[in-house]
Amino acid sequence: MTMSRRSFSTTVVAGAAASLIATRGMAATSTPPKARNVVLVHGLFADGSCWSEVIARLQAAGLNVTAVQNPLTTLPEAVASAQRVLDRQDGPTVLVGHSFSGMIVTEAGVHSNVSALVYVAARAPDAGEDYTALAKTFPTPPASAGIVFDGEEGRLSEAAFLRDFAGDLPEVKAKVLYAVQEPFQKALLAGKTAHAAWRSKPSFYAVSTEDRTINPDLERFMAKRMGAKTVEVKSSHLSLISHPDEISRLILEAAGQPT
Hints:
- By secondary structure, this protein is an alpha/beta fold.
- It is built from 11 helices and 9 strands.
- It has a 6-stranded parallel sheet with strand order 2-1-3-4-8-9, with helices on both faces. A 3-stranded antiparallel sheet has the order 5-6-7.
- Helix 9 (216-225) links the parallel strand 8 and strand 9.
């Protein structure tokens, strides 16, 4: 007997939902220790400057903040770039990832300095999970059609960037972000995490309800699976820029700091 694609997807989603209790992070909802360090990691179509609005707010709250310049080459190299920054921290550290860098948070988050994890409209795979296959069980977000490749190097077209990635930002600001977009290597997308730090670390998730880059229902699924403290922000994929107050408050909560 053959199974239609729709039936297959429905079966996969139903099976995944049924396994939520079995896979949920054991310590995800525990109270995180107080931390004064925050490490931020950017995802595709961006660079470390995308955290500027959040950085200013966290620094005003007295936190030590570092934004990793993700090389966007391969997952191991991207994880290593975050680990080097984590090595330099002098105590408990909140590790925060946006978009693709949720992969990095999930892998590098097992570092002994990491006290809590924050995912901002981010990928949150389980150990060894095929994220692409998981994402295909949900409707494909519009931004996917806007990815263009020059050989092995990928980027988002200007139209897709303005409409589907930064849709709730003023066009002038969105065009500046488009101009500093960091291309990624196709090999980066093939990486799989060997660890799932959210299984053992307190976890927090900010869902972007108007996201056109990662399906919001996929974000909700991953947040629920890890048992994360979850907030929903009426935002495009770039909530860290369009809603920095909400994202900063979530990070401060993960750091055990007053909000």
